[in-house]
Amino acid sequence: MKETDILIIGAGPVGLFTVFEAGLLKLKCHLIDALPQPGGQLTEIYPKKPIYDIPGYPSVLAGELVDHLMEQIKPFDPQFTLGERAEVIEKNEAGEFILTTNRGTKIKAKVIAIAGGLGCFEPRKPPIENITDYEDKGVEYIIKDPEFYRGKKVVIAGGGDSALDWTIFLADLVEELTLVHRRTEFRGALDSVEKVMELAEKGKINLVTEAQVVGLGGEGKIETVSIKHKTEGVANINTDHFIPLFGLSPKLGPIGEWGLNINKNAIEVNTLDYSTSVEGIYAIGDINTYPGKLKLILCGFHEGTLMVQSAFKHIYPDKKLSFKYTTVTGVTGFEKENA
């Protein structure tokens, strides 16, 4: 049986950064993720998508951020169990947690930190009757490699951050890009909305609001989309790709059976330390909920930082925790001092 101080469920950016913060306190971490590689959604769904709200990076590709996080945690030698899903959690007589995966792997830990992002997820599909006929034939719900669309005609549907960000990113890459949204207002960041509007004014994209895609056509692959406008009826346009970006439908999976307080597919936590209703189990990142919650990577970094402070006290209740700045001691300094 594998053993660790903190078992982190979810190897996305928040889980990875938590390893760094735990390492500064000499706490060992083991990460488990159902995906075959670290990085979570950043690696699996949009590795080439630029991220703009990471401090110190005006822009960083999602995949590059994961690479940097992996480099940052190397000194602390985290262990990984990848391609396996956390299934069952039990407590032994000593109060330690025993987690069993769907493949029978057992890991013993003093503390569990759930950093599972949205949990198990699948794309939300628009109600278009024949959309499944064109999946992998011009209909994609996730953009993994922008170069795949170079020189092509693309229609994106959606009004959130993903739709706006990819519209901005692909505008200079594709032959023709159309963004379709059923409202005139967008749900994304104001800066992104302004950039999209500017692209539309310059004629670099076609912006169609108060409309939605209602049909797809083509022999063997997608060739046209039918767009129904609120007042102007239905119009067909030629395209090589249709990309509906309506977010992900989250499912907690086995986590929902662990006796935690659940609110709309999210885990309720105490904002003092992001502890859950089960002592010794914490939840950080997009999987938790509390008043004022913002689902941002940088907020997850903050939550993980506070969580490991509480985890240290849980693991070593009689040991004094002395917080110091890394600018003073550095990572190497922490290792030498606590060796």
What is this structure's SSE topology?
Layout: E1 2-9, H1 13-23, E2 29-33, H2 41-44, E3 50-51, E4 60-61, H3 62-73, E5 79-82, E6 86-91, E7 97-101, E8 106-114, E9 120-123, E10 153-157, H4 161-170, E11 176-181, H5 190-201, E12 206-209, E13 211-217, E14 224-229, E15 233-238, E16 241-244, E17 248-251, E18 262-263, E19 266-268, E20 281-283, E21 288-289, H6 297-315, H7 326-338
Parallel strand pairs: 1-2, 1-8, 2-5, 8-20, 10-11, 10-16, 11-12, 19-21
Antiparallel strand pairs: 3-4, 6-7, 7-8, 9-17, 13-14, 14-15, 18-19
CATH architecture of the largest domain: 3-Layer(bba) Sandwich
Q: What structural category arises from helix and sheet content?
A: alpha/beta
Q: What would CATH call the class of the largest domain?
A: Alpha Beta
Number of domains: 2
CATH topology category name of the largest domain: FAD/NAD(P)-binding domain
Helicity level, as a percent range?
10-25%
Distance between the termini: 25 Å
Strand residue content = 25-35%
Shape: elongated
H-E string: EHEHEEHEEEEEEHEHEEEEEEEEEEHH
| CATH 4th-level superfamily of the largest domain | FAD/NAD(P)-binding domain
User: How many helical stretches?
Assistant: 7
Unreliably modeled segments:
none
**Strands, total number:** 21
Radius of gyration: 23 Å
Largest sheet: 7 strands, mixed
Overall pLDDT level: 90
